[in-house]
Design a protein that fits this description.
Length: 286
């Protein structure tokens, strides 16, 4: 079993509701159910009984869930113990969302290298919800994530970012349901902000157009008049493209903003390598 499987069992035992556990672990409900079925297949037994009221652990499942809590504690102790041996290695595994990595991370690491030239970084680029899960699993030491997740970790607000409607030519919000919306890879918290804003103005769904991997490619589609997109940007610019950017506002005129956080396990602040980087980031934003 993976560490995340133990985490899933532990959380489900504390709160036997698949919907709530899926939200807490930033997973879809079908993913939680599939993972649970995989664990049951591995042990060749029923861990829970399902009903309209939720899930109820079987006696065998209850035993495994209690062992899950011990396994999580053991793995946390193991990781912290191994970190003590890594002091001389001076290596930090840093989770970073794609756009933050592109526009902000080089400057941050350049400035930090002047303070601590011996520390090396391994950068993991994934959507923020996946980075948060990696942090839960201990696969990354700290992360820069977009959107408001729960407070399982210590967090520092890095920047608030304005949302924009990006199109080839100026458009009205009333026009948008008839224009193809170009999707790109995003985290669930960003999608929630987009959906919340959309529902302020429209009852109908967006007209979906081409789905593109990363936002860099979307600009080319928009330039050719193939649709519009929504994005967050610290500055209203598009690299090399003459596109129109209209700030996203709620109906009361409030801007649509997304927070970017630096998140890390609170107990690791005292570690010599990671702790020094954490203090640098916290002082940087003061």
């Amino acid at each position: 079993m993976r560490d995340s499987d133990w985490e899933l069992l532990y959380e489900l035992y504390k709160n036997p509701n698949i919907t709530k556990v899926a939200n807490k672990l930033y997973m879809s409900q079908p993913s939680v159910t599939k993972r649970l079925q995989g664990i049951e297949n591995e042990f060749q037994l029923n861990i829970v009984n399902r009903s309209t009221k939720g899930v109820e652990f079987t006696p065998e499942g209850e035993f495994i869930a209690k062992m899950a809590e011990k396994q999580i504690q053991l793995m946390n102790e193991l990781r912290l113990g191994l970190k003590a041996f890594e002091t001389d290695k001076k290596q930090i595994v840093l989770g970073v969302s794609y756009t933050f990595s592109k526009f902000h991370l080089p400057e941050i690491l350049f400035n930090y290298s002047k303070l601590d030239p011996d520390t090396n970084f391994t950068v993991v680029n994934e959507p923020s919800d996946e980075l948060y899960q990696r942090l839960l699993d201990g696969a990354v030491d700290a992360a820069f994530v977009r959107g408001d997740f729960d407070k399982s970790f210590a967090s520092t607000l890095i920047v608030k970012t304005q949302g924009y409607i990006v199109s080839k030519d100026p458009v009205t919000i009333e026009d948008l349901p008839q224009i193809p919306y170009l999707e790109y890879r995003n985290n669930v918290k960003t999608k929630e902000l987009f959906d919340q804003w959309w529902k302020h103005y429209h009852d109908e769904e967006q007209l979906l157009g081409t789905s593109v991997g990363y936002i860099d490619s979307v600009w080319q589609f928009i330039e050719r008049g193939l649709g519009y997109t929504l994005c967050f940007s610290e500055n209203p610019f598009i690299d090399g493209y003459d596109l129109h950017m209209q700030p996203m506002l709620y109906q009361d005129g409030t801007p649509v903003l997304r927070n970017t956080w630096f998140v890390y396990p609170k107990e690791r602040e005292k570690e010599p390598v990671l702790g020094k980087f954490i203090r640098f980031i916290n002082e940087m934003v003061v």
